[in-house]
Amino acid sequence: MIEVVDAMDRQVRLAEPAERVVSLVPSESASVADLAGIERLVGRTDYCVEPLGEVDTIPSVGGTKSFDLAAVQALRPDLVLANKEENGRPLVQALMAAGLSVHVSFPCTVDESLRYLESLALLLGVDADRSDPVMNCRTAVQGARRENPSTAVPVFVPIWKDPWMTFGGGAYASDVLEICGAHNVFSGRQRLYPLAADLGKARPRSGEKVDARDTRYPRIRLEEVVERGARVVLLPDEPYAFTEDDAVVFREIDVSPSLLVEPVDGKDLFWYGTRLAGAIGRITAQVKRLRPVCFGGYPNK
Question: pTM score > 0.90 for this model?
């Protein structure tokens, strides 16, 4: 009997390693393929795009938040992989009510991503201590922490606009940045309610409860980017695909020296799991390259 505890504090039990897996999370589809082979996947979502050139052969059950419940059941999975943030709760609960084995993840730190990988490996019958993808992630994390400079590069990463949005310190991407030698300047900024309060145009409503609301993704004013001391703006290509027009907005902010603006792979920031090893290497290299320019005061070009 295989037993793991998921992010909802549920015991997920399998009589034997899962051979038929439906993944409702793009990063987890890639992790299954890396850990145990693409053949373990029998279902995925429209947004599960990796491994490139291989995952297209796997049937899709729809979107991450609006997948087809009947289609998932028809695939007769031994295991369904879901995420608290990525997937719609009512549909995930319906899968559980239908008697399917569902593992719900929610890693918000790099260490939690490593623990998630260990649980996934166990569910797939893979020895984590002998798995190259798992060991590569552990080694990358240990190396980054060992070499992390004492002075972090102050970074701002938007995830949406109209209004501009970012993530606070409770988000996975924020911890990735810290491990890679950068500091998320909004790490201490929680989301406020209502929207006007988040944008500094009103005070939070007196007595408004936010306990059940996610406060990790504040809506912000562009002035806050400067006020919080950002020197670098990294523009990801997901969940929103920022363009050169967006880069110009930040380059034209009246601050001296001007902000350094560069693209960054959104998957490296937001995809937990086996992608972590390569992501740490790439983001660490980018931050290291920007460090002397950032602290040297050269303007962005």
Answer: yes
